[in-house]
Structures are given as C-alpha cells and as structure tokens.
Design goal:
The structure is a single chain. It is globular and about 35 Å long. The chain has one domain (4-74). It contains no helices and 5 strands. The protein is mainly beta. A 5-stranded antiparallel sheet has the order 4-3-2-1-5, with no helix packed on it. A hairpin with a 4-residue loop joins strand 3 and strand 4. It has strands at 4-16, 21-30, 37-43, 48-52, 57-58.
Length: 89
C-alpha cells in the first residue's frame, strides 16, 4: 500500500502536550496500515514538527461547543494519559 498525504483545509487547531504548546495541523500523512497517522504541525512559536497522532490533541473550541475533556496535568511526556491502563494483558 502506498502512503497517503492529505492537506487539511481548513487547518486543525491542536495542542501538543510534549511541548505544552498549541498550533495548527496542516498535513496528515499515513505511511501504511501498520503505522500511526503523522501530522505536520506549525506551532505557535514558528517551529514545524511532524508528530504521530499519539502526541497530538484537539484544542478547546467554544465555537463548536467542544470543551477540553483532557486533564493536561495527567499527560505523560510520551503523550499518553496517566489514567490509561495497559490493555494488552
């Protein structure tokens, strides 16, 4: 299977817990069915990063009545939530 690149229009406002920063995702890339989706994100400080979906969260958006349901204080450095349990067992 070939990779898929999708330009997001409009861009999606996102929060990146790893950097404690907001930005806009403007490209989504899927390399194969075995990998995470990779987002290309322009952060508010001007940096551009490619991060897989484990590290990217939607921003709060009161216009569409989407309040943040994520307790960002419980996020680990790898983007996973401290309340997540290992479901592989």
């Amino acid at each position: 299977m070939a990779g898929l690149i999708l330009q997001l229009d409009p861009m999606i406002p996102v929060y990146v817990p790893r950097f404690d920063m907001e930005g806009f995702a403007f490209i989504a890339t899927r390399y194969s069915q075995e990998h995470y989706i990779v987002f290309t994100i322009a952060l508010d400080n001007g940096e551009i990063w490619e991060l897989d979906n484990r590290y990217v969260r939607f921003c709060k958006n009161v216009t569409v009545d989407r309040e943040s349901k994520i307790d960002f204080g419980k996020l680990r450095n790898d983007g996973t939530h401290a309340d997540n349990r290992d479901r592989s067992a």
